[in-house]
Design a protein that fits this description.
44% of the residues lie in helices and 14% in strands. With 377 residues, the protein is an alpha/beta fold.
Length: 377
């Protein structure tokens, strides 16, 4: 009988990280059981369990996960990661980790981005016993996250350097980047000589819960002021494309676009694939989005805007802490970074060599699958 692997990720970054591994396991004969609240679909999957739609649930996450484990009796569980600050105190990844530990079912979590690693595996509301409370049997991560986690006191034997499976196919996209660039720009309706600034939005409620002191609206203000401060001959060919975060409320996104349009900037939106949008752009701007890392791995110019000086003390986004991309923590600094980039200055020259070291080898999915297979009895 085929071994069963239950997969669950509550947020888009986690879904992207585990989906290639789930597909490879399925292709190799494993029975993949997909939790109903996971935004993940595999061609021809045989089983989808669950049925409770978040957030209109009447059961607790623990009760839902217990019922599903008892129902499908998985041989292993593959999880994404999230933080209580954005997902709430009780969410599925943590519930599955605890229940699987009780029942002796091996768990594997894939870290999608080197940021807030301790928070992802801790009960931040329990100051006495909450630190690293939700450690799975194995954590799959890239080398940067691995180094950070070792420094933060994670047990070394729990972490395996695999890379993020979501990035395995970036090399193929880059090799065909000109083809994708033309297609993307055509769908955006922009001209060959236009300068496309792609702004990748976040989730307003997440930023408010994190209490970082700003939202996308403040960042869009900085972007638009950076554009409008330029002489007409520089700004007339600038197109601002705003990309909606998959979890953002549509009304919030509409407000963001209206705010940008009020600056008399050429504003577009895109429903196209984010990676093709990146390839079609000239500059990618965001806060701490995975898209900034993807852009950097694709050798595209990217920058992080966080217009609050207090964030300089607490920002742990590795692209910023390792100075791999330009970033600023003041409103004027953010605005000036945008202006400088639009002037086609030498701003990014010092960063080209730094970002060259981020390219993967396309084998992360295989490594994650091997970790899972090694845990299944």
């Amino acid at each position: 009988m085929a071994k069963k692997v239950l997969v669950m990720a509550s947020q888009p970054g986690g879904v992207n990280a585990i989906k290639p591994a789930a597909q490879m396991l399925k292709d190799r004969g494993y029975n993949i059981l997909i939790h109903a609240n996971t935004c993940l679909a595999l061609p021809g999957e045989t089983v989808t369990i669950g049925g409770v739609t978040y957030p209109d649930r009447k059961e607790s996450h623990i009760d839902i996960c217990k019922r599903e484990i008892d129902s499908c009796k998985p041989d292993a569980i593959l999880l994404g990661t999230a933080s209580q600050k954005t997902a709430g105190r009780e969410y599925f990844e943590q519930a599955y980790t605890l229940l699987a530990r009780e029942k002796g079912i091996p768990t594997v979590a894939v870290v999608d981005l080197p940021i807030s690693e301790v928070e992802r595996f801790s009960d931040i509301y329990d100051e006495t016993h909450g630190r690293l409370k939700f450690l799975p049997d194995k954590i799959c991560a890239d080398s940067i996250a691995y180094g950070r986690m070792i420094e933060q006191g994670f047990p070394k034997d729990r972490i395996v350097v695999t890379g993020n499976p979501h990035f395995d196919d970036i090399g193929g996209l880059v090799r065909n980047s000109e083809e994708h660039r033309k297609l993307s720009r055509n769908l955006m309706g922009v001209r060959d000589h236009d300068f496309v600034l792609l702004y990748v939005s976040d989730v307003r409620s997440d930023l408010e819960n994190l209490k970082w002191g700003f939202t996308d609206g403040d960042c869009i203000d900085a972007v638009c002021k950076g554009i409008t401060d330029l002489p007409l001959r520089w700004r007339k060919d600038v197109v601002l494309v705003i990309k909606k975060h998959p979890r953002e409320v549509q009304n919030n996104f509409d407000e963001l676009c209206k705010k940008a349009a009020a600056y008399n900037v050429d504003v577009r939106t895109s429903a196209y694939n984010i990676r093709h949008d990146i390839l079609g752009s000239d500059l990618v701007v965001g806060i701490v989005s995975t898209a900034l890392l993807e852009a950097t791995m694709m050798d595209k110019d990217a920058m992080s805007l966080q217009p609050n000086p207090e964030r300089e003390k607490t920002d742990d986004y590795f692209l910023n802490t390792q100075d791999i991309i330009p970033h600023s923590y003041t409103r004027d600094g953010c605005k000036n970074l945008v202006s400088e980039a639009l002037l086609r200055s030498a701003l990014f020259l010092p960063y080209v060599e730094k970002r060259a070291g981020l390219k993967g080898d396309g084998k992360a999915t295989e490594r994650v699958v091997e970790v899972i297979k090694g845990l299944i009895k």
